Amino acid sequence: MKLSQRITHLTGGGSDGWDVFYRARRMISDGYAVTELTIGEHDVRTDSAILEAMDLSARQGHTGYAMVPGTDLLRDTVAARLQARTGVPTIRHNVLITPGGQSALFAAHFAVCDPGDVGLYLDPYYATYPGTIRGAGAVARAIETTSKDAFQPRAEQIDAAAEGAVSLLINTPNNPTGVVYSRRTLEGIAEVCRRRDLWLISDEVYDTQVWEGSHISPRTLPEMAERTLVVGSMSKSHAMTGSRCGWIVGPEEVISHLINLATHTTYGVPGFIQDAASFALNAGSALEEQIAAPFRRRRELAVDILKAQNTVGLVPAQGAMYLMLDIRATGLGGEDFANALLDTHAIAVMPGESFGSAAAGHIRVAMTIDDERFAAALSTICEFATDLANRPAVAS
């Protein structure tokens, strides 16, 4: 029996660069004490008030099938939130509630890509991006950004890759780099999208985690609302990663077709989870700031630690819960460095190569453990890198 190429070619074959993560998890299972700085999981779990709202909704009977597009309450709440943040008129019919941001990413590509179409994405990228595009039947084409540009994509790079493409996927604030795209960057992206007639899929799940500058949704730029699909989620903004509640915001016609897709795939999100999400969003910015505060604080700790040495470079850490560190001075690539760090100090980080070739020679550090342990681990990483950089050269 034969499986579809769509499923067997989802990851593109070869290593996905996550071997260090899996090895660290095996070490933990075997009883080793490993400091994990790998994935973007909050160290402080979902706020008790949100859980109480979820429990109350379930106990009051909202446990049956919910409306497939999402409850009116949550769709209205998401629409009001985006309109307040962007100034772009947004109503319920512009919103589809999805089982998390990942489901929204897939649905968005499924909506705009026919089999064999080219979907563009930027390298470095969140690990699922190319597989998501392939899963929708499209051809995933990477556009490399560069460390010297602080991983800000240039319009001419995108334009050069856009021949035959129908969509472009971007992510700001960015995972893995922590970079927030500037207005100039986004205006360049928008200009290419308009001229090349591209759909823009904008992953904005980190929009509440901005440490420098400001988050600009490309949907706000001239003539972009009609060609932009915004992906959002409760996962990062409200530490609700396991609740699986996200959304797509876009033109009404697209959303109407995506509701049809949801009817044939996910069949919606549980009502009690949507009620908890509505409660959380209506709690206002104070709760979001409380959830973001540990990462803002740790980012400041990191800046101070990294200033005290000159081996490890910091890609501008403007947003999100990660640091992208340049360790090329050690002479090692990201994967070799991460494996050596795990072996010698039991600290697990993600190699830059896990997120594409553009981040080779870098590592990604998640700021997801308490302040004291985080500072100690980052100091150890810097000391380890300095020792490697200063080791005597081996004669050939």
UniProtKB/TrEMBL annotation:
Coiled coil ranges: none
EC number of this enzyme: 2.6.1.1
Annotated protein name in UniProt: aspartate transaminase
Cofactor(s) demanded: pyridoxal 5'-phosphate
Catalytic reaction list: L-aspartate + 2-oxoglutarate = oxaloacetate + L-glutamate
Family: Belongs to the class-I pyridoxal-phosphate-dependent aminotransferase family.
Top-rank taxon: Bacteria
Pfam families: Aminotran_1_2
Originating gene: aruH
Residues annotated as domain Aminotransferase class I/classII large: 36-380
Single GO biological process annotation from the record: amino acid metabolic process
InterPro entries per record: Aminotransferase_I/II_large, AspAT/PAT-like, PyrdxlP-dep_Trfase, PyrdxlP-dep_Trfase_major, PyrdxlP-dep_Trfase_small
One Gene Ontology term of the molecular function aspect: pyridoxal phosphate binding
Assigned keywords, A-Z: Aminotransferase, Pyridoxal phosphate, Pyruvate, Transferase
Gene3D superfamilies the UniProt entry points to: Aspartate Aminotransferase, domain 1, Type I PLP-dependent aspartate aminotransferase-like (Major domain)
